[in-house]
Amino acid sequence: MPSRSNLFSAAFVKIDGGWNGAEVDLGSAEIADDLGDAVQEALGLEGDELVLLCVEVEDEWFAIVRYENDLDLRIFLSDAQAGLTDPLGEIFTDLAGVAVDTETSELGVRPAGDFELLADLGVSSEELLELSMEEGLPADVLSVIAERLSFADELDRLR
Q1: On the chain, which terminus has fewer CB atoms closer than 10 Å, C or N?
Q2: For 127-148, how does the pLDDT look when each residue is reduced to its tens digit (9 = 90+)?
Q3: DSSP secondary-structure letter at 30?
Q4: Domain encompassing residue 35
């Protein structure tokens, strides 16, 4: 099981003229609601903002969760197998509607979830899929996405 020292998570809220970010402590998250509570606490939200939670587990996988207008959250997970080795990954695979396949030993990244969750912000489903399939580290992929969505400075500040 990955140690929590390999975990980085931050949430970014869309504000006039850009984004504002805060690190989010997911160390005690046990269920999906804990994620939303942690995001709300970190950012002091009103409830109708557009928020992206970015989570990376070093060398393993990343997830992006989109919260907006109290609608159901939308999630993209870079690897559907994340739930096999990590309790936090289990939460994300559940949210993404992925049944983790414990029978297959096939290696390789299998993205899952909502590939369109960033399309209206400037990262198409094709780009998101392509980025997650590249041989880069999750941190590098999130940096590219943050650059495209104009919150790279905030992401760098929090790392």
Answers
A1: N
A2: 999 999 887 899 999 999 999 9
A3: -
A4: 4-158
